[in-house]
Design a protein that fits this description.
Blueprint (H helix, E strand, L loop, with lengths): L4 E5 L4 H12 L3 E6 L3 H13 L4 E5 L5 H14 L3 E6 L14 H22 L3 E10 L12 H21 L5 E7 L13 H10 L9 H11 L11 E4 L8
Parallel strand pairs: 1-2, 1-4, 2-3, 4-5, 5-6, 6-7
Helix pairs in contact: 1-7, 4-5
Length: about 250
Amino acid sequence: MQDMTVLVTGGTRGVGRAISLRFARAGAAVIANYVRNQKAADDLLELGQQERLKLQVCRADVSIESGIKRLLESIAEHTPRLSALVHCAATGIHRPLEQLTLRHFDWTYALNVRAFFALVTGLLPRFDPGSTIVAISSEGAVRAVTQYTLAGSSKGALESLVRHFAAELAAKGIRVNSLAPGTVLTDAWKALPNSEQRLEEDAAKTPLGRLVTLEEVALAAQFLCSEASSGVVGQTLIVDGGARIMA
C-alpha cells in the first residue's frame, strides 16, 4: 500500500481504528477522521508517532454539512489526491420500535447514509483511476436484529448506494464495495441490550467458535483496497467467521 493516501471516517475507534492502523502499517498515508472522542484520537496519533507511521487525524462531524465542508477543505489543502475512502463512521439508536422517533431516524441516516453520499460525491475530483471506496456495513442490512431497526435499515440503504455507485464509477476506474463484519467486540456493544449474552451466543453459533477480530476485519478492508480484489465491484464482503451460513 505504499504511495496510497487513505481517508478513514470514524477512524480512531473500533473497526475504524483497526483499519487506520492496518493501512498505515502497510505503508499508506492515513487520514483518520473523528468527531467526539479526543482521547481516542490522541492515543492513535501517539501510537502512529511511536511507530513512525504516516498517520494523521482530522476532526470533523461528517453527519452535518459544515463538517463535510470542513473535511473536504482540509483534504483539498493537504492531500491533492486520494487513493481510497473507507467509511466506518456510524451511529444508531437501539430501542424498541415504539420508542423511535423521526429525530432518531434523521440522526442515524445522516451519518450512516447521507455522509457517505456526500463524501463520495464531494471527493470524486480527488480520486484517480485505480482508487477504491469501501463502506462498512453490518448483518443488520439483510437480517432483522433486536432493537437494531434504524441502524440495520440504514446499512441496507448504504449497501444499495454502494451498488449504484459501483455501477457508475467503474467506468472511471473507481471500485466501490462494502464490507460487512460479523459480531466484533467493540465499545458499541455497550449500548445494546443484553450485550454479554448476545456476544456469547454469536460466538457459539459460528463454525470458528469465536468472534471475528478487529484485525481480521481490517485485513479484509485492505484486500478490498488492493490489486488483489481488482475484479470485485459492487459486492458486500462478509467477514463473520461463517455465522451467516448456519441455520
